């Protein structure tokens, strides 16, 4: 059951020791919402810390500047004191990566703050869920409101990064008047420079990122009469992205900019014959339903899944699923671009 913000905050403030965490490979919303809530709880006198399943990528590390009580999970050291574990930007313990086994063994009380479809079926005992919210950070801001507190500069920067990450820096269709109003409040906090936050997120790439993006995008294919963009990355590119600290969502943007494309799919290899799938919809295709059928989830226009199988086979399955979701007039002969390995329909 999803709690009212006031009731949910009361659960947090009554806990003796609170640990905040989120999904593996934290993005801007996941990390930003955790930092924002950490600052609020400490302001309210709650003993709290953040335990990340994975280290953040290089472009997000500025959010940790001057913030104490943030650590990356170490299996040898364990979770430490934890009366209440709060999942932010995810709702299932299976999304906690290396932290999941420790939580299953410790069995602390679980709370959830999330905005994804399906979060009403969360693993939490108490949940603060709103699928209409643009970001988990928006829900954290509601907790500030009911607490009667104003975010510090550290918290405001983190929450601005949270909103910016999940709205495409206020370009996506989930950018509502409410989102703009909350962003206005954050940039009015003394010490917050919106342009500096944007630069830290998007203009601090490693020099090698240019070559990486060129080679990655060169593997793309545009199929289904120009309606679907597909990109299958190989392990070499994945390893390089890890070394460079690149947010792999960057490789989607050039495909999303192509006129006529309805859906972009990026397939990334993982270990043990599994792949990670990221889907973005430009218009009417509900990619959350496609991801859900593959064991994942997300939003109507942004979703993902971790799928068993090799990358090429999964890419073919995804294209078939997207084709079935397109209106009949949008289906037809497969088209390709002039470079990169074949994915679907090439001969």
Q: Your description of this structure?
A:
The protein is α/β, with parallel strands linked by helices. The chain folds into 2 domains: 198 residues, inorganic pyrophosphatase (n-terminal core) (Alpha-Beta Complex), CATH 3.90.1640.10; 122 residues, Diaminopimelate Epimerase, Chain A, domain 1 (Roll). Helix content is 36%, strand content 17%. The chain is built from 12 helices and 12 strands. The strands form 2 sheets. Strands 3-2-1-4-5-6 form a 6-stranded parallel beta sheet. Helix 4 runs antiparallel to helix 5, helix 5 packs antiparallel against helix 6 and helix 8 runs antiparallel to helix 9. The longest helix is centred in the first third of the chain and has 16 residues. The chain is globular, with a radius of gyration of 20 Å. The C terminus is likely disordered.
Characterize this entry briefly:
The chain is an alpha/beta fold. It has 12 helices and 12 strands. The protein has a 6-stranded parallel β-sheet with strand order 3-2-1-4-5-6. It has a 6-stranded mixed β-sheet with strand order 7-8-9-10-12-11, with helices on one face.
What is the strand and helix layout of this fold?
Blueprint: H1 5-14, E1 18-22, H2 28-43, E2 48-52, E3 70-72, E4 84-88, H3 99-106, E5 109-114, E6 126-129, H4 136-147, H5 153-166, H6 177-187, H7 194-202, H8 209-217, E7 221-223, E8 228-232, H9 235-244, H10 253-256, E9 263-269, E10 274-281, H11 287-293, E11 297-298, E12 302-308, H12 311-325
Parallel strand pairs: 1-2, 1-4, 2-3, 4-5, 5-6, 8-9
Antiparallel strand pairs: 7-8, 9-10, 10-12, 11-12
């Amino acid at each position: 059951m999803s709690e009212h913000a006031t009731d949910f905050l009361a659960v947090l403030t009554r806990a003796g020791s609170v640990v905040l965490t989120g999904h593996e490979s934290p993005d801007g919303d996941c990390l930003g919402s955790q930092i924002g809530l950490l600052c609020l709880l400490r302001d309210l006198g709650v003993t709290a810390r953040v335990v990340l399943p994975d280290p953040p990528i290089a472009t997000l590390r500025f959010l940790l500047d001057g913030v104490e009580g943030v650590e990356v999970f170490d299996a040898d050291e364990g979770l430490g004191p934890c009366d209440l574990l709060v999942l932010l930007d995810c709702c299932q313990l299976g999304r906690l990566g290396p932290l999941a086994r420790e939580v299953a063994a410790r069995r602390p009380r679980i709370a959830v703050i999330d905005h994804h479809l399906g979060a009403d079926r969360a693993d939490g005992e108490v949940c603060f869920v709103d699928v209409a919210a643009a970001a988990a950070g928006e829900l954290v801001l509601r907790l500030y409101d009911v607490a009667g507190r104003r975010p510090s500069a550290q918290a405001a920067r983190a929450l601005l990064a949270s909103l910016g990450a999940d709205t495409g820096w206020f370009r996506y269709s989930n950018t509502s008047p409410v989102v703009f109003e909350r962003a206005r409040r954050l940039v009015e906090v003394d010490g917050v420079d919106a342009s500096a936050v944007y630069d830290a997120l998007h203009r601090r790439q490693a020099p090698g990122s240019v070559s990486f993006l060129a080679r990655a995008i060169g593997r793309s294919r545009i199929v289904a009469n120009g309606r679907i963009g597909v990109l299958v990355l190989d392990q070499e590119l994945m390893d390089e992205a890890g070394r460079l600290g690149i947010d792999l969502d960057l490789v989607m943007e050039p495909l999303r900019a192509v006129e006529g494309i309805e859906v972009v799919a990026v397939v990334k290899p993982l270990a043990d014959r599994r792949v990670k799938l990221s889907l973005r919809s430009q218009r009417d295709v509900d990619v959350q339903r496609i991801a859900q059928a593959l064991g994942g989830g997300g939003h109507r226009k942004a979703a993902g899944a971790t799928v068993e199988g090799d990358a090429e086979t999964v890419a073919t399955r995804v294209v078939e699923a997207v084709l079935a979701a397109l209106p009949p007039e949008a289906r037809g002969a497969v088209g390709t671009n002039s470079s990169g390995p074949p994915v679907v329909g090439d001969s």
